[in-house]
Write a structure and sequence with these properties.
Elements lengths: L1 E9 L3 E11 L10 E14 L2 E9 L9 E5 L6
Antiparallel strand pairs: 1-2, 2-3, 3-4, 4-5
């Protein structure tokens, strides 16, 4: 999950900023796992139906066993 997002750049096609990426290590299982927080740069992009449909987070510092950049699909269905 992305927390403490600070969006410092907004445009019609993308928005960017910084935040904290929170990840459960699921060790020994997800119910008993621990949450770890990592500083990231973040970007909203790919507009569909007037809404951003992608969130890309990029770890500021590499973390062993984690992809440095991850992109997530966001829902663009009208409520």
């Amino acid at each position: 999950m992305l927390t403490h997002a600070d969006w410092n750049r907004w445009g019609r096609r993308s928005a960017g900023g910084t935040g904290t990426f929170v990840v459960n290590d699921c060790k020994p299982d997800c119910a008993s796992g621990h949450f770890h927080r990592y500083p990231v740069t973040d970007r909203l992009h790919r507009v569909v139906h007037g809404m951003f449909s992608r969130l890309t987070v990029h770890l500021v510092h590499p973390v062993k066993g984690m992809q440095r950049t991850q992109t997530f699909q966001l829902s663009t269905r009208p409520a």
